[in-house]
Amino acid sequence: MNPDRNEIASALTEAAQEIHRHRSLDDTLDAIVRAAQQTVPAFEHVGISITHSNGTIETRAGTGQLVWEVDELQYKLAEGPCYDAIRHGGVTVMDDIDQEERWPRYVDEVRRLGLRAQMGLQLYTDDGALGGLNLYSRAPGIDPDAIQLAELFAAHAAIALGRARHEHQLNESVASRQAIGTAVGIIMERYRIPEDRAFQFLVRASSTSNIKLRAIAQEIVDSTAERFVNEGRA
What we know:
Elements: H1 3-19, H2 25-39, E1 45-51, E2 57-62, H3 65-77, H4 81-88, E3 91-94, H5 104-110, E4 117-125, E5 128-137, H6 144-191, H7 195-209, H8 213-233
Antiparallel strand pairs: 1-2, 1-5, 3-4, 4-5
Helix pairs in contact: 1-2, 1-6, 2-6, 3-5, 6-7, 6-8, 7-8
C-alpha cells in the first residue's frame, strides 16, 4: 500500500470515529458532512438528505449555501444525481456537467450556480433507505478512487445516521408520552373528569384543530406552567 493510500485509510478511520460518537441527530448530521468534506478529495461541498415516511426528501445538513440551492432544484425537478441515488439506490455520478444528458432541466438550472461535477450516494441500512450523501465540485472530473472512498464513508455514515435517528425517535416518543400524560393530568384536575375522558378531550381537540396530539398537549402544559409563574409573581 503506497503512502497516499495509507493517508486515505487513516483519514477514513478518523472520520469513522468522529461520526460514530454518540450525539444528537443534528450533531451527527453535521459531523457527517464535515468529515466527508475533509475525507473525500476534490469536492468543495457536502450535504446530507433525509427521506421521510411520506416520501418527501429534506436537506438537513450542508457545508455551504450551494448545497441547499442545488438540492432544492433536484427536489423540485425530481431529477439529478442525488435525487436518483436516493430514489434508485447505489451511487450516481455526474462527471462533467457539460457532457451530461440525463437531466436536461436540472443541468440548465444548476450550471448558473457554478457546479461542474457531483456525486450522490444512497444511505441505506437493513431497516431501509435513510437518505443520501451528496458531494459537489466546481471542477469537472471525479477520480475513481474518490468514488470508492465515498462509498466506504457512506457505509459508516449510514450506520451512524441510523443509530442517531433511532435514538432521536425514541427520545421524541418519550417526550411525547410525558407531555400527553401531564396534559391529561391537568385536564382531569381542571374539569374534574376521569382519565379516559381527559384523553378523549385531547384527541378531539387535536382532530378538530388538525394539530398533532403532542403539540396540543405541550401547549396545555406550557400555558399551565406560564400561568403558575405569573400567579407566583403577582
